[in-house]
UniProtKB/TrEMBL annotation, chains A, B:
Transmembrane segments: none annotated. The lineage of its organism: Bacteria, Bacillati, Actinomycetota, Actinomycetes, Kitasatosporales. Its EC number is 2.7.8.28. The keyword NADP does not apply. Its cofactor is Mg(2+). This is Phosphoenolpyruvate transferase. Belongs to the CofD family. Keywords: Magnesium, Transferase. Gene3D superfamilies: CofD-like domain, CofD-like domains. It comes from Streptomyces pilosus. It holds the Pfam family CofD. It is an enzyme of class 2 (transferase).
Length: 324, 324
């Protein structure tokens, strides 16, 4: 079975680990979000790609869900001592090596997709990990922040600044994947979608993770035209995000924070099946009314076995869709 | 009193620490060797400048004489796990920060001299540290190494590869500061020499440290024409280097490994005074016959006080020269 998964960071990575346990022999291609990539200290940092790679490769810090295990932060301390920031982005000493190798390879002329493949040679994540694009896409968030005079000033900031530095503490007025409209899917992305038996949207952020991937021209169309079941898992449980702050950016695109609203946001043109948590069983009818087959199953990612059961439910729903 | 010192790495840095103790109020300008600079992992590494900066700024690893105190090597371990080398060059996690800041500033268009000044803003070494040049100079060493067939193959390797990886275990057939002939002294270098009251050559390597600095067109001439005492301290004590492997590269330039021979190598056109160790008192006459005033004093850099006494002797000899 060939499965394509559109993945963001922590949620996507944990879902993939469960999927691998549920169907160890499946051939999984992950299309990774690069909209939250950022240049820091002259280095190219790809937080979502790395979270997938470290999580599946056994190098992740399990408690925080991102960064490396057994990590130290001496380099970052020294940068701060030089007065060089930002200080709000947590890069550890071990993690830095990934960014140094990546930056060096990009500087030598390799596209990000080739660099990602080379990094995965070490981590052996058990999936094929492809960035959504080799082109530069950077998610910006429009916010209103107080200026020096205490007046509100509207400005666009990098997604990481919104998410990590501000911790989504102010409303996101707009979310724009800058550069997406001119980006091309990375080599292998459209081919993987075209050859897939099933396409899954993990409980990743529908705006800044899955939404950014879908914003690369050609990817949404290829998924809609693939002619295979497309099944998603709700990142919202009981009107709140399973993890993260998805509700903050949903508001920016005019979508209420509910399992049904996210399904409607993707729409029946894209999505064939949708899993909601058992606490949201009441919305199954609404989702199905939108033309999307829906099931209520436990969606809390408490441990790898629980996630494997979720992944199994998603594949079961895909087969139901296929049988129709 | 304005003192100019031509410095390499460990020997130069330790001498400078003693000099600062001997004459705390002197205005010291250090012209640092950049011939052993190397690009590693896409970063610009300046071992000699950093050793001076860390030693005088209180951040040096005292035992090894280079690198940072309280250092860890996690980043380097990870680079090795990615199969990215070289592994023979010891860059620690804290040390990496210096190279990242430097590389970022160079990439932004600042010359190395401005970058060095910015780095020193943090370390406050108590001297003005200027690289000999902002241009690229790279010391290469010609060696004969066995090729795949076991035949000797003559090749030029980077000085660091000769010094650190091979530990000078094969003869240096030639030492070439590649690029030096087209390099210009960095801003401030010739001015500092022109305004100096005394110019000192610490017991640094006469070929790959002081010699490289003198190879930048204009520096040797400015020192010879400065009209102030130029005094050096022998890096050779009892026919062996005080530290390091200076004898290995002296052979490449046809100079015997003795305190007198190094003085003659610099020559009376450049050098006015020369300190040799008491064990080499027998060569004082030979050095003076070469037109260089010479004294035998203890030259072992056992602790900062001993080095301060050495520096004091150098300044005393400078006053003797001036009085003539």
């Amino acid at each position: 079975m060939r499965i394509v998964v559109l993945a963001g960071g922590i949620g996507g990575a944990r879902f993939l680990r469960g999927l691998k346990r549920a169907v160890p022999d499946a051939e999984v291609t992950v299309i990774g979000n690069t909209g939250d990539d950022i240049h820091l200290f002259g280095l190219k940092v790809c937080p979502d790609l790395d979270t997938v790679m470290y999580t599946l490769g056994g190098g992740i810090n399990e408690e925080q869900g991102w960064g490396r295990t057994d990590e130290t932060f001496h380099l970052k301390e020294e940068l701060a001592a030089y007065g060089v920031g930002p200080e709000w982005f947590g890069l550890g000493d071990r993690d830095f090596a990934t960014h140094i190798v990546r930056t060096q390879m990009l500087g030598a002329g390799y596209p990000l997709s080739a660099v990602t493949e080379a990094l995965c040679d070490r981590w052996k994540p058990g999936v094929r990990l492809i960035p959504m694009t080799d082109d530069r896409v950077e998610t910006h968030v429009a916010v209103t922040l107080p200026d020096a005079a205490g007046e509100g000033e509207r400005k666009a900031i990098h997604f990481q600044e919104y998410w990590v530095r501000l911790r989504a503490s102010v409303p996101a007025e707009a979310v724009v994947p800058v550069g997406a409209e001119h980006a091309k899917p990375a080599p292998g992305v459209l081919e993987a979608i075209g050859e897939a038996d099933v396409i899954l949207f993990p409980p990743s952020n529908p705006v800044v993770s899955v939404g950014t991937i879908l914003a690369v021209p050609g990817i949404r169309e290829a998924i809609a035209d693939a002619g295979v079941p497309v099944v998603g898992l709700s990142p919202i449980v009981g009107d709140a995000p399973v993890r993260g702050m998805a509700d903050k950016v949903l508001a920016a695109v005019g979508v209420e924070s509910s399992a049904a609203a996210v399904a409607e946001h993707y729409g029946s043109g894209l999505l064939d099946g949708w899993l909601v948590d058992t606490v949201d069983a009441g919305c199954v009818e609404r989702v199905e009314a939108a033309g999307i087959r829906c099931r209520a199953v436990p969606l809390m990612m408490t441990d790898v076995d629980a996630v494997a059961r979720m992944a199994g439910e998603a594949l079961t729903l895909a087969e139901e869709v296929r049988a129709v």
